[in-house]
Amino acid sequence: MPRIAYLGPEGTFTEEALRLMEPDADRMPCATVGAALNAVRSGEADGAVVPLENSLEGGITTTLDEFAWGEPLLITAELLLPVQFSLLARPDTEMVHIKRVYTHPAAITQCRGYINRELPDAFVVSAPSTAAAAQEVSLPGSPYDAAIAARIAGEHYGLVEIAANIGDRTDTVTRFVRVARPGTLPEPTGSDRTTLVVFLADDHPGALLEMLTEFSVRGVNLTRIESRPTGDGIGRYFFHFDFEGHVADARVGEAISGLHRICGEVRFLGSYPRADGITTQIKPATTDAAFTEATTWLAQIRRGGL
Amino acid sequence: MPRIAYLGPEGTFTEEALRLMEPDADRMPCATVGAALNAVRSGEADGAVVPLENSLEGGITTTLDEFAWGEPLLITAELLLPVQFSLLARPDTEMVHIKRVYTHPAAITQCRGYINRELPDAFVVSAPSTAAAAQEVSLPGSPYDAAIAARIAGEHYGLVEIAANIGDRTDTVTRFVRVARPGTLPEPTGSDRTTLVVFLADDHPGALLEMLTEFSVRGVNLTRIESRPTGDGIGRYFFHFDFEGHVADARVGEAISGLHRICGEVRFLGSYPRADGITTQIKPATTDAAFTEATTWLAQIRRGGL
Amino acid sequence: MPRIAYLGPEGTFTEEALRLMEPDADRMPCATVGAALNAVRSGEADGAVVPLENSLEGGITTTLDEFAWGEPLLITAELLLPVQFSLLARPDTEMVHIKRVYTHPAAITQCRGYINRELPDAFVVSAPSTAAAAQEVSLPGSPYDAAIAARIAGEHYGLVEIAANIGDRTDTVTRFVRVARPGTLPEPTGSDRTTLVVFLADDHPGALLEMLTEFSVRGVNLTRIESRPTGDGIGRYFFHFDFEGHVADARVGEAISGLHRICGEVRFLGSYPRADGITTQIKPATTDAAFTEATTWLAQIRRGGL
Amino acid sequence: MPRIAYLGPEGTFTEEALRLMEPDADRMPCATVGAALNAVRSGEADGAVVPLENSLEGGITTTLDEFAWGEPLLITAELLLPVQFSLLARPDTEMVHIKRVYTHPAAITQCRGYINRELPDAFVVSAPSTAAAAQEVSLPGSPYDAAIAARIAGEHYGLVEIAANIGDRTDTVTRFVRVARPGTLPEPTGSDRTTLVVFLADDHPGALLEMLTEFSVRGVNLTRIESRPTGDGIGRYFFHFDFEGHVADARVGEAISGLHRICGEVRFLGSYPRADGITTQIKPATTDAAFTEATTWLAQIRRGGL
Question: In what residue span(s) does the Prephenate dehydratase domain sit (chains A, B, C, D) (predicted)?
């Protein structure tokens, strides 16, 4: 039974993601993304599940920066988890009793419509996390009457779900990834994604255009680009790229080798099956077969044969 | 005396930025970036100063999203402010008495070296903002002995600066912008920056490459690109661009007109003098004179003259 | 009745092209392409018809170079003329009598199948032009029994067409253009072609890629590119471009203005209806309407309106 | 002693080129470029020397088309030969006696200044080649008094050089290539050129831009591009490319493999030392060492190592 670290405490959306990705894991909650990843690095855990981006909030910068700067780890899987907030309270609490609500600020933002409509007079207080809010509400004598959190948090802390799916949007999604220590990569499936971090060698005009051209010439489609500061002053950035395909694919290998040549540093973060299962569309000129055929042709003309 | 809203409370780095940009302004602290910007939109304030990005933390996503989605506003100036943290306490506090420190989590991260070295036994607690931490410490009976905050916060709340510039890095910088309601643009100075938000018409492979090519063909150099989620699911992004030059420049005008034609929506956020004062290097083929000459030539050949 | 110079003598394919383009013209045969064009330049002729390229032989370099270096002229129309060779002889000549055939070397090459099959024992001699061959054969006492030439040459010189369309390929085509002194351009028709000559400012690596990018960014499709030596040594070239669209089109105007800015010299050779009548496919982002809309938008944001 | 075919008859500039390239060869004059190349193909000759382009006239289309369509051959060397015309006559001829001059039309064009100045009253007649003109003049009873040809033609046919270097330009150059049957390639020297012929798979808009991008992404600089008609109608072309570097170079190999994947057919015509001896400038990111290092890196990350 693998031991998998995750962003805790118990009852977070991350735990929910972990349960879906690894139902039989020995779950190890950690206080921060960094702590979860360090547990993998140190060998204390066999893997970790952490959030990478959210369809409303964007990239989880802690995760992005940990991947870029910390000891290298490999992403081996991803999951898209719908973010569904529940209103949770101690048993026997009724709607009319809810005067003080405790939850994370992102949940306040995302449930504003429900709160205004159903709890117009409630006082809403910010918590460090939705799971922490649920935990607090579960304590006897808590000053709060209800928490907004994942349903799973209610199960953990013995709270009742008074209302489900109370977010203003029903399509909010968080993307989680499972990471491991460097080792064997997941096999290509035809529906894969690869993630890289790229540091520029020198930040000249057109550097980003050159990077994108390395991808496009080999028919590799980007699915995400995110710039992050290097820390060395405003105007200095490094980049996260997600793109279609697996590092074992010839076109992906050539594209990232090109990046490796023109950039200061390329850190490979993994190739893994896409959560959405979409099959990668590959142009005839950039299939593995086309690359193999071109390699054979090149070897032949280099020997002087035509 | 213009009335300028800013991200408060009193004593924030934003206030420090505002004092440097508009020494004589009537300062109006607001609880959130959104509130500061809304004060401008409603006419309650004449302008606002808000943080846009930080050299360690990256883009301030609240600001980025407010600019993209809220009622349009114009950036009219920018400032680069070194982030210098001070250790602040009530008068007569000595170093040995400091057992509990209160500050914003970003400050904890950025002052970790100092804390470990000088206050190894102190208990450090997270505050909503550095200014709020200083305010709290200033209250008689506060459970905290010291705050880490901007020096200006000490002046506001009657605290003494026990140690100055205690951040681990001395080169951390935050970029602030001053915004106004749409109206007259700042004059071009030869050292200008322009900021745009761009929404794709349809998110096809190569769309970002096409956008960057619109810039490069007109010799316009990007200085920042930031992707943000549109909210419509993982994989859907819009983009913030900063680039050299002023919308009054011919090459900039043609480049962003090109973006306007190929993209779903381009929102112009302003052209304003660069805080670093670096003069834009323009290739001979993309000066205003070159554009004017080409326009004359085109008019002539369209009339059948050669 | 306009006086139109053409590449003579009477009976050339060029005359045939001229008759199709300008049935009522006063035809003025000239010894060379240069002479025909000079007749226009001097005012002696109102226009000229000259060959530009052939689907087997390629560009007619004399014409290309005359357009590039001579006093400027405008192309106002084009014609695609199938090259159909006839075997022409004096009246009463029968196939069995044909022992000596006279024609231009290109015709020898292009009718090799027919000659080998039908005239295996004939002696074939090179003539300066197919029309000159017909003229020679028409003379009493000519040493030649037949000419291979355009049917029109037979009509001119009183020869009988013994066999028609004897070329090995039935799809060979020559493209002719009608030129005039600079003046009013033909109106855009939606199915237009534009021709340019471009000299580089400095021949740096990537110069051609930059030129093609000026076209592609504005959605302008090339239909022909031809490099010609500048005369200043091996490795120095200038370029002929044909592309879809009319100089009056916004996207064409912007593209060639871009070329004009980055290149040493751009010589406009004309915009004129395509002979094949194919309607130019224009992407929504590069229609005239899209350019107009973008211009309006740009003017508005330059005034500070959003 | 290798037997080398060349474009004859004896006394041509091509013979001069051959003597410089292969002083000890057994020289075999041929009537046409095609005949010279066929002598190599059939094994009758060990190699051939033919002209490829001229700095005034441009590409020698016969040679270009032979390389593209005929049985494959390899270019193994190139030579740049200054084109120096001499006025040649039978012994004892004096300038005042020269009334009829015989030479190739290109020589007439290129020596027009000298002819007008020194032989204003002479009648100038077109010959099939400059060497043929010299040969004719050498015959007793020739109707011509002088030929304009290469000095070497005078040596061959016993003519005296009355005036040397009489061309209007002193810098005209013809580029010759030596070809062989497919076999061992010349070794890379650091100053190499490679020649290709490329046929498009489907002639879509942007196809040429895509081809050039395959080169530019690998830092390969073009030195010549020439379009030639495929024969299948106006608007259908194939391309000749010359570029810096040797097929054994990693960046060249990857670039032409890319072309091979995206194009209908790529025919390799050879890698050989540049006649001008210019050392290829290679950017650090595209040296062989950079490619090797990237290959090692890729293998490592594909194994899951980071």
Answer: 3-181
